[in-house]
Specification:
The chain is an alpha/beta fold. It has two domains: 179 residues, Spore Coat Polysaccharide Biosynthesis Protein SpsA, Chain A (Alpha-Beta Complex), CATH 3.90.550; 54 residues, no CATH class. It is built from six helices and 15 strands. Strands 2-1-3-11-5-12-9 form a seven-stranded mixed β-sheet, with helices on both faces. Strands 4, 6, 7, 8, 10 and 13 form a six-stranded mixed β-sheet that branches.
Length: 254
């Protein structure tokens, strides 16, 4: 698995938006301990410790411009390895390539086109969660851990911003390139269980409107934390605002 010492291109580029240096340092220590060392990995970050200078969409685009790895890992600063490490990830990705040579994205949690949850994770919702079989093809991926195949040329939408739903955005981008997204058997710990608040709901409404117009048709996509309804046309904005207000009321957020 390790690249040759004469090879300037690492196997993995580990890319993170960092708002907490202590969390990020603990993440890097965990990954290094799991075999993501300098013979196969590089570590890249965008610095949000002094405030949100970068959103997820612009930050990821910036990281992709710098990344040299064959596989680009987009991950949260609060992930920690358990028993799986670099060798296991490389093996799972090789197996995925045999299964589907055209794959573009892989992660540890997502939802299929039929709305079925697929995941391999430990987080505040439960330890050792495993819903396969693996690999499972999905239409959305959770953002805690996503592997992007560099050769696929997938990038986040330049017209979107914020810190939510970029996993689904990348899946839609992959689909537009004829690429697929999968959940694989790579078990790690995510310290956060995620949160849906007013900011999330506002971004969801903008996401639905943007992608509905781009697709030019209606489509429903379930993610690990919400259901997106993509609609084209003037009515989509009014309907999106109505749905947003109803969900705000249910959640008790302004």
């Amino acid at each position: 698995m390790p690249v040759s010492p004469s090879d300037p291109w690492p196997l993995f580029s580990i890319c993170t938006l960092v708002s907490d240096r202590t969390q990020h340092a603990a993440m890097c220590a965990s990954l290094l301990g799991g075999g993501f060392r300098s013979d196969c990995a590089e570590y890249l970050m965008v610095d949000n410790t002094a405030g949100n200078a970068w959103c997820a969409y612009t930050g990821i685009a910036h990281l992709l411009d710098q990344a040299r790895g064959r596989y680009i890992i987009l991950c949260h600063q609060d992930i920690r390895l358990l028993s799986d490490g670099a060798v296991e990830l490389a093996t799972r990705l090789d197996q995925l390539t045999v299964r589907d040579p055209g794959w573009g994205l892989a992660g540890n949690a997502g939802v299929t086109g039929e709305g079925i949850l697929a995941l391999r994770i430990t987080d505040p919702h439960g330890a050792g969660q495993s819903r396969g079989p693996f690999p499972t093809r999905v239409v959305s991926l959770d953002e805690n851990f996503i592997v992007l195949r560099a050769a696929a040329g997938i990038r986040p939408s330049a017209t979107l911003s914020g810190f939510h739903l970029y996993g689904t955005d990348l899946c839609l981008q992959a689909r537009s390139f004829g690429r697929s997204a999968w959940v694989i058997d790579f078990h790690l710990r995510h310290l956060s269980g995620g949160r849906v608040d007013a900011g999330f709901l506002r971004q969801q409404a903008l996401f639905e409107r943007s992608w509905g117009r781009r697709l030019g048709r209606s489509e429903r996509i379930r993610t690990t934390c919400t259901t997106l309804t993509l609609r084209a046309g003037f009515a989509s904005g009014l309907l999106g605002e109505w749905r947003l207000s109803r969900r705000r009321a249910r959640l008790g957020v302004g």
